Structures are given as structure tokens and as C-alpha cells.
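User: Study the chain.
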Amino acid sequence: MSPEQPIRVLVVDDHPVFREGFAALLGSIDEVEVVGTASSGVEALEQAARTEPGVVVMDVQMPGMDGIEATRRLLQERPGIGVVVLTMSEEDGTIFDALRAGARGYLLKGAEPDEVVRAITTVAGGGVVFGAVLASRIADFMTGKPQAGTTTFPGLTAREHEVLDLVAAGLSNGQIAARLFLSQKTVRNHVHAVLTKLQAADRAEAIIRARDAGLGR
């Protein structure tokens, strides 16, 4: 898209520092014109009607009407708009709820700015964008491929299953972070959550239980 016809973007997030900072970042890019910001799902619908954006960057967790419901209603009213969900949540339920609502992009807030811009550009052109790891999980879901260990450890999230599987395979936190495109801090948090939910005394006990369940192969 040429600089003469920038992509009109509406930024929706209930955290004012993130919202305004992100809007300022997008506003510095020639291909993008930020036409408005909103702090809730209700305000997003109002702003979309007033500013007529081509793409809406939508948070999920917001008071009142959340981003999923806002996306659903927005696309009912204006089906030509592209919605890119930008959120902290990587839970499968949230991802697929966003898909069912009509979102054509789903990125985590840790995504690099250029990745977000590429997603906005792609969605504005009619494409679909999901981060590499999320895309793989979506593909597994669509093809019916089961998530490793989901029945053995039902208390764990899909991401925690992935982490446990790699822990059982003998990978370090650094190696897991590289494999899943996560920070080491995020991996440490997932490992801690896994140990807590499994009530495992330490990493070694978690590995033994995971391998007994068929993980780590």
C-alpha cells in the first residue's frame, strides 16, 4: 500500500500506557494512519463507526464487553474490517474464540513491532496472520492432531503441555525458549506452573512422571 493511501488503524486496549504508546509507534510508520483509540469493546464499536478503520488492533481482556465479543459485533456491522487480536493470552480457548469471532490476525503482545506491522498490512490486504507457534497449534487443531498429554495431565494448559514435553525430552529452559520463541523468563514461569499443578517436588520428578505418561520422546 502506498504512502498516499495508508492503512487506517483503530487501536483498542484498556491499558492507557500501552494503548497510547502503541498508537504512537504505529503513527510513526508511513504505511499506517492511526485514526483513533478506544479503551473498551463498547468504545471500539463507537470509534469504528465514526472513523471507519481498515484494521482494528484489538485487545481481549477488557472490562465490560471484551475483545472477542467486540470483534464479533464489529464484523457483523462492518464485515470488511480486518481485526488483529494483540493480547497476552496464548490459551487455546482464547485463540479459537477469536477465530470464531472473525479475527484474521492473532499476535502476542511480546511480538516485535515489525511483526505487528506486517500483520496489519497482511490483514488489510485480505490475508490471515498468526504467529509461528500459534499457527502450528491452529493447524494441529484443524487437522485433529491431539495435543501431547492433554488427557494425561488435563490440569495443564496447551502451552504448559508443550513445555512439559520439552522438559521431559531433556531440554534446558534456554533451549525451550528458543524452540517455542519465548523468553526464558516466560519459560521459567511455565515450568513453575507445571511443577505446582503436578505437585512435583522438583524438575526431576516432573520429568519422571511426564516420561511415564509418554512425553519427551
Notes: The chain has two domains: 7-138, 158-212. The first strand starts at residue 7 and ends at 12. The two ends are 46 Å apart (CA to CA). Residues 7-138 form a domain with the Rossmann fold fold (CATH 3.40.50.2300).
